[in-house]
Amino acid sequence: MQGTGDAVKACKAASAQRAVFAVTAALFTGLLMLALNLLLAAFGGRALVALFGEDLFRTDWKYELANIALYVLLQLLPGLFLFWAIRLHRGKAVNPFAGPVGAPPYPFYFLPMCIGALYALNLVVQLLFGDLLSPFHAAGGDPLPTSVPGLLLRLLQLAILPPLLEEGLFRGLMLRLLLPAVGKTPAVLVSALVFGLMHLDPAQSIFAFGFGCLAGYAYVQTGSIWFGVILHYTNNLLSVCASCWTAMLPEDSPAMLALSVCLLLLLGFGAASACLYTELLRRRCPKRRATPAERLLPRRGEVARIVFCNPTLYLLTAGYVWILWLLYFAP
Fold first, then answer.
1. Is the CB of residue 264 less than 8 Å from the CB of residue 278?
2. Are 36 and 125 in contact (CB under 8 A)?
3. Contact 37/74 with Cβ under 8 angstroms?
4. Could you say which of 116, 144, 260, 331 is the most buried, measured as most Cβ atoms within 10 Å of its Cβ?
5. pLDDT digits (tens, 9 = 90+) for 96-124
């Protein structure tokens, strides 16, 4: 019996070490992305001008193509780091895009519930903290391209590439690293936190955290990123269409009123879908006992201690605040 107890203690100690490694690797990935953001903001434009000349900023489609190249680089390097961390952790490489093209339970309720819940979250954040967040919105972004190739490339950058690259990075690699180390709920929350902090706008960070939780839940339910890709694509496409619509139309036009009505209908449909989805899950999914592997995982309190006592978390938070100050407030 003493030998069995010692073996269980040794397994739990090894499990705690794996949890520390996985959490640190996930948080360090976020820190690496912030550092790359800072480097690209400081030197990326100069490097592109040195390579392609001043004409780069006079032709909108070339400018959009350069932004796409920088965006892919920003996703690729942290992805390689996570790929290495998973190989070190598990002893084998993984394919972030592997897995069945499945869906969580009741997908026709889940998808509108997600979209409605996310836009409801965004509305609540704007109502509660709109004045506080106004300096970040006042900074604005790049104006819409005027040429058709430029618009298509902007659509590629904002609506088509992010679902594939970001889901592959944050769910296909980061969440896959965290799941066997800390369990489902902590893994989803940590990956969603890092995903949120990578959007360098506080309102977008809150929205992205909520999205990361929903996409992480979809990954846990299906074992693949593809439903999350569909959800991500739907959300980004709606955002791009709404941005283009509001940029081209006056605020008091009937079309703007129609857009507002559509958003309200979407919120209502999302709320109704959330209530129905919750009730359907309650009936379908009875509580189950933990598997032997799950019993060896650190308890949630221990996982919380691992996360909040990790210096990388505070370096990541400080880096996020510092970059916000540089982007929006520095003279």
1. no
2. no
3. yes
4. 116
5. 887 766 777 777 778 777 877 887 777 77
Asked if 21 and 89 touch (Cβ cutoff 8 Å), the reply is: yes
46 burial via Cβ count (<10 Å: 0-12, 13-18, 19+):
exposed
DSSP 296: T
Residue 106 backbone zone (phi > 0: left; psi -120 to 50: alpha; other: beta) = left
Vertex 181, ends 175 and 183: CA angle to 5°?
Answer: 70
DSSP state of 240: H
Residues 6+ apart with CB under 8 A from 197: 30, 34, 205, 316, 317, 320
Find where tokens 């794996």 sit.
18
**Per-residue DSSP letters for 87-120?**
HHHHSS---TT-S-----SSHHHHHHHHHHHHHH
Boundaries of every domain in the chain: 2-328
| Angstrom distance (rounded) from CA 245 to CA 247 | 5
User: In the prediction, which pLDDT does 108 show?
Assistant: 74
Tell me, what's the pLDDT at 114?
Answer: 82
In terms of Cα–Cα distance, which of 232, 85, 231 is closest to 161? 232
DSSP 54: G
What pLDDT is stored for residue 142 in this prediction?
A: 66
Residue ranges of the chain whose pLDDT lies below 50: 1
Q: State the Cα–Cα distance between residues 240 and 303, nearest whole angstrom.
A: 37
Residues ≥6 apart with Cβ < 8 Å to 145 = 60, 61, 63, 64, 151, 153, 154
Q: What span, in angstroms and rounded, lies between the C-alpha atoms of 234 and 246?
A: 18
Query: Closest Cα to residue 195, out of 307, 30, 313, 71?
Result: 30
Distance CA 209, CA 121 (A): 10
> 317: which residues sit within 8 A by CB, 6+ positions away?
197
pLDDT at 1: 47
